[in-house]
## 1
Amino acid sequence: MTATSLTTDASRTFVVADLGGTTLRVGRVAAGAGSAEAVRRMPTEGIGRYPGLTARTLQDRVVDQLTRELVSYLGSSGGEGASAVGVSFAGPMTKDGTVLAGPTLWGSATPPLPITNMLTRRLGVPVVVANDITAAAWRYASAETDPFCLITISSGIGHKVFRNGEVLISDAGHGGEIGHWRVDPAADALPCECGGRGHLGAMASGRGVLLAARRAAAGDPRSFGLSALADTAGGDPARITNEDVARAVRADDPFATGVLRACMVPLAQAVNCVFTAIGVRRYLFIGGFAVAVGHRFVTLLGDELTRLGCFGLGDEEIRAMLSLGAEDDDHCLIGMARMLDRTLPALVNIGGGA
Ligand SMILES: [Zn+2]
């Protein structure tokens, strides 16, 4: 048995929410369980739905929606008897649970938001709010015995390093943002959704690969014409989708594979840097685009990483560092419950004054 299962009280259940830029999900997870139950999904009332509203208005709207949905869930049969509430949040946070930014939720900068205190006051149960990738990393905390780095590849890129029972970031919330590491210093490098340029997340994410595929198709019509992508996109580079790229790479299409290979270079450099800096030898990839490409994603990344070399490791050892995570989309809900299960006793001590 692992240390986690020894401390798990299976009778405890948690209400967990995953607040993302597109979707808010609320569900229930029993302590130690590997799946979420009675999950409700709804569109997030943020900048994606109401792009014309100010950041402050959107922030109020999103927090009101989250509070309302949690109150409703706690009052329903699904939330009855829950020991605590956990929320995973798509943005940087301080250790004490203050939100620093919510670019995909309300866009531009707003003052720090003490969301954990706000929710604790309004819900009347212990609440933990954590960054979404931190929550996702907790999902793997009990199964992974060695330090690991979780990297999510979807519309953007995020990561967290987990070691000795904690996610390695500063108390002020810095770290775990390799997607915003500048890998292309050129002044006209690709813009990132954060407003910067040349960031890893602009180049090696699902969005970055799609852009690269469309550019390559427009720049080399002959190769594109011979590609499976030309069939699915009707010969129009602008109609290529991420699903098309993933399918074509899985089928070993030379054009699509070449595009993805080029995009893997800065990602391999990022893995190389984390390994060289702190010696982590386990890299788990999750997120819609990585999962859609599947094992080919890890193989192509391994090709680039062995080409670069990792100081002190042989090729087989380098490839063995890379794996895909679970294919479902419940990382944040399950991970949040595991995090609550491990951190809640400490919270109860503080709150109980015993
Ligand atoms: Zn960025």
## 2
Amino acid sequence: MAVLTVKDLYKTFGAGTPRANRVLDNISFDVRGQTFVSIVGPSGCGKSTLLNIISGVETHTSGQISVTSDDGKPARMGYVFQDPRLLPWRSVRKNMLYVQDQADDETNRRVDKYLDMVGLGKHGDFWPGQLSGGMQQRVGIARAFAVEPDLLIMDEPFSHLDAITARALREQLQDIWSQSKKTVVFVTHDVVEAVELSDRIIVLQPGGKIFEDITIDLPRPRRQTDPAVATLQAEVLARLERMKGMAPQVSAAP
Ligand SMILES: Nc1ncnc2c1ncn2[C@@H]1O[C@H](COP(=O)(O)OP(=O)(O)O)[C@@H](O)[C@H]1O
Ligand SMILES: [Mg+2]
């Protein structure tokens, strides 16, 4: 598990140029332990930028960010993206092994364990092109869990799937996550999905400020068909209606 600390974070693309675009505006939050946090907000509000800064792919303009393992070491991170990004010329199992440091017996056992957990135990020798989109995304999820990350970062992993497949994968993700000890930061534009999955929802508004930080206190496993889940989804949606139509908060770039 990981300890993630974000403090007074700002990001401006093209800082100091006439095209300066402030995308993240004074973001602060902490996440620790086996917590599932979603970052929710409309398209363009800076969600992927925030994830890219957390993962170290993108730099920030000012503020602090730290990700450590809960034993104080640098955190191991795993990633799941919108598209599974499998190498088409490698088998499913070889795609899983590709991101592993070693290919010893223990690693092979771990890869098989997570393939089993996503229901693809018999598909290790298949080519990605032989799998449906939902199955490929399950390989992407298994691959991320199989590196045993302290922090798992997921950027809209179900947004390209049909509603039925997405629902099945949300249920599977919850089950795997409940059995593993991972801190998850999950990005989505879908509030309903976020309520089903998360312990906590950080809502970003256009302009990249935190609009609300909501605790979701529902027992697990949660299922879309559960009335308590549906009631809370409606409640959170109603709260976010206040944000609808809000003009982007344009502030002077540093
Ligand atoms: N590499 C980049 N260079 C310049 N602008 C960028 C870059 N990446 C993202 N942006 C801009 O930052 C804003 C937020 O983008 P993004 O973080 O992808 O939003 P979201 O993931 O919430 O849809 C957008 O206005 C986008 O055009
Ligand atoms: Mg995005």
